[in-house]
Amino acid sequence: MEKSYVGMLHEHCPVCLNKDETKSSILLDKRMRNSLEKDNNVIANEPCEKCGNLLKQDMIALVVISNSTSDKRERLDQKDADRTGEIIWLKKHVFREVFNLPGEVVEGHMAFIDVEVRDKLKSMVADSDIENPTLN
């Protein structure tokens, strides 16, 4: 790919990875060297408007990934997560109940889950009379 001394930086939502068109920046190599790609992408610190609205409703995003760490206690970095594109939104109190966690543990706004956990969650919803529109 051809490089330039000017590039664009695009921020992506940390939850859904959609590009936020309102949060783009122009990059400029001060030495005027052709060192920049035309498009540069980074994961933003703040969620997009859609995900932000769900998070304000005391929800947590369960992002389904196809890879998982060998040690389940190890944290998986965003850039290493092989996302399937599926996101399950749960109220935080439901998340605590389902995963048997004390209240203070749920601080973040998202967690990675593997496909096996997703399947178990879907079967739990299917076995109940509860309809959950946030399972996709």
Distance N to C terminus: 36 Å
Number of helices: 3
Largest sheet: 3 strands, mixed
Order of helices and strands: EEEHEEHEH
Q: Which parts are unreliable, with pLDDT below 50 for 5 consecutive residues or more? A: none
Helical content band: 10-25%
Q: Tell me the fraction of residues in β-strands, as a range.
A: 25-35%
| Widest beta sheet: strand line-up | 2-1-3
Rg from alpha-carbon coordinates: 18 Å
Provide the domain count: 2
The best one-word shape is elongated
Q: Decide which structural class fits the backbone.
A: alpha/beta
General description of the model:
By secondary structure, this protein is an alpha/beta fold. The chain has 2 domains: 6-43, no CATH class; 57-127, no CATH class. It contains 3 helices and 6 strands. It has helices spanning 49-56, 92-98, 115-127; strands spanning 6-12, 19-28, 39-43, 59-65, 83-91, 110-114. The strands form 2 sheets. The chain has a 3-stranded mixed beta sheet with strand order 2-1-3, with no helix packed on it. The protein has a 3-stranded mixed beta sheet with strand order 5-4-6. A hairpin with a 6-residue loop joins strand 1 (6-12) and strand 2. The longest helix has 13 residues, at 115-127. The relative contact order is 0.17. The mean pLDDT is 80.
